[in-house]
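User: I'm putting together a teaching handout on how sequence relates to shape, and I'd like one worked example. Could you take Protein kinase domain-containing protein from Thalassiosira oceanica, show the sequence you're using, and then write out its predicted structure as tokens right after it?

Assistant: Happy to. First the sequence, then the structure tokens directly below it.
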Amino acid sequence: MSHKPRWPADVGREYEPVRPIGKGGFAEVWMAKNKTTGGFVAIKCTKEDIYSKREVAILTELSRMQQPHPHLVKLVKAFEPADGAVYIALSLARGPTLHHIIRKHGALGLVIAQVISRQLIGAVAYLHGHGVIFRDCHPSNVVVSGSAVDTEAWWSDSLDLDGEVLALAKRCRVTLIDFGFARALQLDPAQCVASVGIEARDRDDDRVESARAHEQIPTTKRGRTREQNLNKSQSRRLQRGLSAVGTRKYADPSIFRTIRDNLNASMRSMNSSMNRSSASASHKERKLKSFSASIADYSLTADSYSIGCTIRHMVTGVPPGISVPDFIAEKNRPFKAVLNAIKRSKRTRPKMYRELSDLPESLADIISKMTTIDSRKRLTVRTATQHPWIEASFVGADDVMRPEARHGNPIICLECATCS
């Protein structure tokens, strides 16, 4: 049983923690009850940094739109107490995540998958219409409301399951959560994206100057040198920054390839005469600059790749980076086979997997075009709104395809947008 958190006074006056919802490397999320209204929200606690400030700024503007998008989480209130953390009250998205549904019985039925695909693409296309890159689209960040996780209709390809599949398709609602790595770009994102890394590079230069200024101060109260503290801070920032390119399996591979190539080139040019301490500091500095230079290439099409991988996972039951036969073979290895047999004995329905060759042509086509390695040839999210697989969805009459989401319509940037 999780111990209830001790929130700062201004948060605790309004909300009472109920139960934990999720915990990651950079944030903890609790379901909470408003002490006045009795309503429920999700409280996200994260360290105060540039990412949390961006998240609050982006969600503030999106939530205040005259017609907020129905498939994006809403900001209720943000708290910035003096404890160095940020507490964000968000609308509570009820239902299992797409990850939980897939993990339960594998590939979803194509009727439900088409509805989820349409709503997911509509939501991200809307963000792109406002110059916002989501940067972390994967099944765990997609909440699907409409029914419990063990409802059979999620995985049925038939519309005749006592009418339950069609009923679920009509009430199914996707909510895109966790804007912790989202970024709002200014002006034309195609022109602005090359400047995304400028701010990070400038901060890196400031850190180097700061380190030089403190070279004469030998230790801190904890006995570490200033240089050691600086390196630790750089390591934490690098970890947070690398996470900002998305969950690795779903992230645009060209970003990681560029980071690796830049880092290798930088390492080859290191001066071999450096002493060990200086070499260590230089390695961290170069790694940060390699990241900063590479993240500048992170364009809107990176979200396309992540969505394509998410759709592929949803309709095949197999995560990115591995084929269906290889995945099944891995599951059938002796030790895992025993564990799977035990798990199957507790389930009434076996897990289902699909080969890509078994998918409808239009579905296979959109997955292929959104996950093309060459980002220049990749289908953009706003163009994907007009793809036959998306337009053919006959369920979900709510207006998920806002004008901003349509390819060719002008991009209306947020006021908090920045190029640096």
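A couple of points you could highlight for students: The two ends are 43 Å apart (CA to CA). Confidence is low (pLDDT under 50) at residues 189-242, 290-297.
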